[in-house]
Design brief:
Layout lengths: L16 E4 L2 E4 L5 H9 L4 H9 L5 H8 L14 H13 L3 E6 L3 H14 L6 E4 L12 H9 L2 E7 L6 H9 L3 E5 L13 E3 L15 H20 L1
Parallel strand pairs: 3-4, 3-5, 5-6, 6-7
Antiparallel strand pairs: 1-2
Helix pairs in contact: 1-2, 4-8, 5-8
């Protein structure tokens, strides 16, 4: 296979080493026969290979792993979930303008998509903002805060970033903008003055899985927003 440094090339059926953009990576091996069985059961060859390499090497194991019926942990296992949910509820009641903000990488953009699309089920006063990688760089920027102030946004939901943005969130607060931070990066000793911080790596957190992605933290947040909405409808 000809190498192309601009591409990530995954040879799923080789079983061990793959040519990738940043060199050679070792990929977990698996039994080709088991992968073929999963592919025959309806999974794509690459999905079947990944599942087998992680030990889900029968259709029964794969279905159990991918089943949406697996019990989920409570959103309230994350500290500040009550504060975050209450602030969103207040914003909806007051018809505030909400901005869903995320980093420009895969975790950030998928998190923005998930939260924005979910909130659209309940509310139309939404905006989203993904910073320009070259002009603004990573995380919350002055430009994004100025954009919010100019457009009447009073609540930012920051996804996959924000845990270290002490000065930026202080700047936003001076403009009357609240922040809810949904992040998974390691915090510093000083935390931003946000309305709520959802992060499984915070000191004192009891969330059972410390390695949630930023999108995963956003999902837990929307899990609670959805549950609260259902409770109010009953």
């Amino acid at each position: 296979m000809q190498k192309n440094s601009a591409l990530w090339i995954l040879r799923a059926t080789d079983g061990c080493v793959s040519d990738l953009k940043y060199g050679s990576w070792t990929i977990s091996s698996y039994e080709q026969e088991a992968a073929t069985t999963l592919a025959s059961a309806g999974w794509s060859p690459i999905t079947a290979a990944v599942l087998c390499s992680r030990g889900y090497d029968t259709p029964e194991k794969a279905r159990a792993f991918l089943s949406p019926d697996v019990p989920l942990s409570s959103p309230f296992d994350l500290l500040d979930m009550d504060k975050a949910a209450a602030r969103v509820k207040r914003a909806l009641e007051r018809r505030e303008h909400i901005c869903v903000f995320g980093d420009y990488d895969v975790d950030g953009t998928t998190a923005v998509s998930l939260v924005y699309k979910f909130l659209q089920n309940y509310y139309s006063g939404l905006d989203y903002y993904i910073p320009d990688r070259y002009e603004e760089g990573y995380g919350i920027s002055d430009k994004s805060i100025d954009y919010a102030a100019e457009n009447g946004i009073t609540l930012f939901i920051a996804l996959d970033c924000g845990i270290k943005a002490v000065e930026k969130i202080a700047y936003a607060k001076s403009k009357g903008i609240d922040f809810i931070i949904c992040d998974h990066h390691m915090p510093d000793d000083q935390l931003p003055d946000a309305v709520a911080i959802l992060n499984p790596k915070l000191e004192g957190e009891n969330y059972p899985y410390k390695h949630l992605s930023g999108c995963g933290v956003g999902y837990k947040f929307m899990q609670e927003i959805g549950r609260a909405s259902c409770r109010e409808r009953v």
